[in-house]
Design goal:
Layout lengths: L4 H12 L26 H5 L10 H4 L10 E4 L7 E4 L2 E2 L1 H5 L4 H4 L3 E6 L8 E4 H17 L8 E5 L5 H12 L2 E4 L6 H11 L3 E5 L1 E4 L2 E4 L1 H13 L6 E5 L17 E3 H4 L13 E2 L3 E7 L7 E6 L1 H13 L8 E4 L6 H13 L3 E5 L10 H9 L3 E4 L1 H10 L13 E5 L5 H11 L5 E5 L33 E4 L14 E5 L9 E2 L3 H10 L15 E9 L5 E6 L3 E4 L2 E4 H8 L5 E11 L3 E10 L7 H14 L8 E4 L13 H8 L14 H16 L9 H8 L6
Bound molecules: adenosine-5'-monophosphate-propyl ester.
Length: 707
């Protein structure tokens, strides 16, 4: 089918628009870091240069203990299903726990900080972790009948039981799939069904923002949702946040639900030998959003993934075994899997887990934790940094801690926010590593080496060690560094952390990440298979990349990816709604928030009751994280002549930016009508966004372009 004229116009725009923003000054690595860092010798950059691909990554694999050494570093025989360290065998739980016992038995593996400040911090040594993981693995094997290759779903909050469960699965070769605790029961049920899990692990409750949240209720919804999709769950294991005290309104279902603390005693002192897994065996699934409603179960491998997170944790986060490292993300996202659990434990360090909200009960909470525990590496997202800055810009000064490295991850950081992070949180003495990557990539793609490479506010840096990015325009021409032109950032080479496939959807895997820039689908040469990251980017003359945001119809809310289709299908479950379109609106704290435009079925009248129903449906289907900032009931959507909703036009309206050329729309007159209604209402309520940066305006202009 021939493309509509507006589609053709769109395809040209992104690569051709020159983006003129100010180049930021760079900051040198702090003196204190130079010399002590794991990557202190610039020769490492050369060692990971293109000439040394793929063997350079054996340096990462050598950080692990292998039961059987690999015979092939990279098998490219079935592109793009790359296999790393083929022939090698290892166990993830052994590597994270057992092998540290000889030297570090009594060292803290995790320090868990409950949200209520009057509750005691829990320290779990490597020895204690070993016991807990073994006992829980025995329970999974015996009580649940789980075996190598089975899948299991967790819907757990930020409690130590979560990493224990992950490592217990890894010990058995059972594939874990953790669903972020803030997701709704329905969203969890979709993922249970997609992964084919028979067992769900949950918790009765947890603290968030000072409230004890009832969480078990979601398990009942999840099981119902999974059943509708044809997946039965046999057992629900329920941890109690306080053993012996059940804090949920949801009744325990006889024969299905069981309190873990009541049966765990049967496995006291049991040990389970770690199953030696092939390097390419799946370790876990992590679901992510994409263009269609069905979530993508990103499958990560055992040997390649673990090598990659160990290596990047060592060199880019500069984790040493004697550090106290705190990543304030949630384990329910990939950041937590890679850089709270697997990376830090592989290196034998101490990883801090915090249950709750960073600003609870006040703006000093994070800095008190850092001071008390002696945290020296701090890892968080721009959303948290913006929030901390807003509620307590001078708060860090009051506390006696000193970070050596600080990370920012998940969304672009505004240079002004970066500078506050550097000056106030880092006290001008810590290196910032801005780490750009995706759920799919297992670990960092673009970032700096903190003691070797300067930092530039708002830019992530060059490619991570061994990662060779390129920016292509729509015609597969390379966009030159320093040209100021934006394009689609891709990674030219395979790397050990890349997802192996989308669980149960191998064609979608090839389509989404490789189809667009594959020169020859029959080629066995990896050079012909660049990986499409899905972000727009520009590269400065110095080689540093600035990430502009997603080029697909994904909204990055507080560093979390939400597919517009997921939000829209949730809205469409409301009987009155005929059409729905979700777009990003720039938000001072959360980066982006979704705004939802809906059109009603004929003959119905708009009213606040419908708006509320839509919001409730989104919370029920996805979770509070996806709650739209505004629901706009409009008479019609701006559409192409083929009937496609032009999301970039309504995104422009929501953000008070130029909506671009609308002359080719089927109904151009609707644009002004919607603009009057939406912008009039926002002006009346004083909700006008600040002027967008060129980078933000570019993102809005291109929103939904690849649909
Ligand atoms: O748009 C990029 C943005 O987050 C997307 C990936 O989201 P997710 O899979 O949820 O993984 C988040 C944690 C790795 C990317 O496509 N993103 C991630 N990190 C950065 C970023 N944008 C700018 N700068 C970053 N450091």
């Amino acid at each position: 089918m021939a493309a509509e004229p507006e589609e053709q116009e769109n395809q040209l725009s992104e690569a051709q628009i020159a983006v003129h923003w100010r180049e930021e000054e760079t900051y040198p690595p702090p003196d204190s870091l130079i010399g002590q860092a794991n990557a202190a010798d610039p020769a490492i950059i050369e060692r990971f240069g293109e000439d040394h691909f793929p063997d350079c990554f054996t340096e990462y694999a050598d950080l692990l203990t292998w039961d059987t050494p690999w015979d092939t570093v990279l098998d490219t025989s079935r592109p793009p299903f790359w296999k790393w360290f083929v022939g090698g065998r290892l166990n993830a739980s052994y590597n994270c726990v057992d092998r540290h016992l000889a030297t570090s038995r009594n060292k803290a593996a995790f320090i868990w900080v409950p949200e209520p400040e009057d509750q005691a911090t829990q320290t779990i040594t490597y020895q204690e972790l070993y016991r807990k993981v073994n006992e829980f693995a025995a329970l999974l094997q015996d009580y649940c009948g789980l075996a190598t290759g089975d899948r299991i779903t967790f819907h757990l909050p930020m409690v130590p039981e979560l990493p224990v469960a992950m490592l217990a699965c890894a010990r058995l070769g059972v594939i874990h799939s953790e669903v972020f605790g803030g997701f709704s029961g329905t969203a969890c049920g979709d993922r249970i069904a997609d992964s084919g899990s028979r067992i769900l692990i949950t918790m009765d409750s947890y603290y968030r923002g000072g409230t004890l949240v009832d969480h078990k209720v979601k398990a009942d919804e999840a099981i119902e949702a999974a059943r509708k999709l044809g997946q039965e769950v046999d057992k629900v294991l329920v941890w109690r946040r306080t053993p012996g005290q059940y804090a949920s309104k949801s009744p325990m279902v006889e024969g299905r639900d069981v309190f873990v603390d009541e049966i765990l005693g049967d496995y006291r002192g049991k040990s389970v030998p770690p199953v030696s897994m092939p390097a390419e065996a799946p370790l876990f699934l992590m679901y992510s959003s994409g263009t269609t409603g069905r979530p993508k179960g990103c499958e990560h491998s055992t040997g390649g993934y673990l090598s990659y997170v160990a290596g990047t944790s060592k060199y880019h986060l500069d984790i040493h075994p004697e550090d106290t490292y705190w990543c304030a993300a949630d384990i329910g996202w990939i950041t937590g899997h890679s850089y709270i659990v697997y990376g830090p434990l592989l290196l034998g360090t101490t990883s801090v887990l915090y249950e709750g909200v960073p600003v609870y009960p006040d703006a000093g909470r994070c800095w008190r934790i850092a001071e008390r525990l002696g945290v020296n590496i701090f890892h968080t997202a721009p959303t948290t940094i913006r929030m901390l800055r807003k509620v307590g810009p001078e708060e860090p000064r009051k506390y006696d801690y000193q970070f050596k490295v600080m990370t920012t991850v998940g969304e672009p950081i505004e240079p002004e926010v970066w500078r506050w992070y550097y000056q106030e949180v880092g006290k001008g003495r810590a290196a910032i590593v801005d780490t750009w990557w995706l759920t799919e990539t297992g670990g960092f793609l673009g970032t700096t080496l903190p003691a070797l490479q300067p930092m530039k506010p708002g830019s992530c840096g060059p490619g991570a060690l061994g990662i060779h990015p390129v920016i292509y325009d729509e015609d597969r021409n390379t966009v030159e560094a320093g040209s100021g032109r934006a394009g689609n950032i891709c990674i030219r080479n395979p790397w050990p952390g890349v997802l192996q496939t989308i669980w149960g959807q191998p064609e979608r895997f090839v389509d989404v990440y490789y189809r667009k820039y594959c020169a020859d689908p029959d080629s066995k040469d990896w050079h012909d298979w660049p990986f499409l990251c899905g972000d727009g980017a520009v590269q400065a003359a110095d080689g540093y990349y600035r990430i502009l945001g997603r080029i697909d119809d994904v909204i990055n809310v507080a560093g979390h990816r939400l597919g517009t289709k997921e939000i829209e299908s949730a809205a469409l479950t409301v009987e009155e709604i005929a059409e729905a379109a979700a777009v990003p609106a720039v938000d001072e704290i959360r980066g982006r928030v979704p705004e939802l435009y809906v059109a009603l079925k004929p003959g119905l009248r708009a009213g606040p009751d419908i708006e509320q129903k839509v919001t409730a449906a989104i919370e029920r289907e996805i979770g509070k994280i996806a709650r739209p900032a505004r629901v706009w009931i409009v008479p019609d959507m701006p559409k192409t002549r083929s009937g496609k909703i032009m999301r970039r036009v309504i995104a422009g309206i929501s953000n008070f930016t130029d909506v671009g050329d609308i002359s080719t729309l089927a109904n151009p007159e609707i644009v002004d009508e919607i603009r009057h209604f939406v912008q009039g209402d926002k002006l009346a309520k004083g909700e006008v966004p600040r002027e967008l940066s060129p980078q933000e305006a570019e993102e809005i202009r291109n929103f939904g372009k690849t649909e």
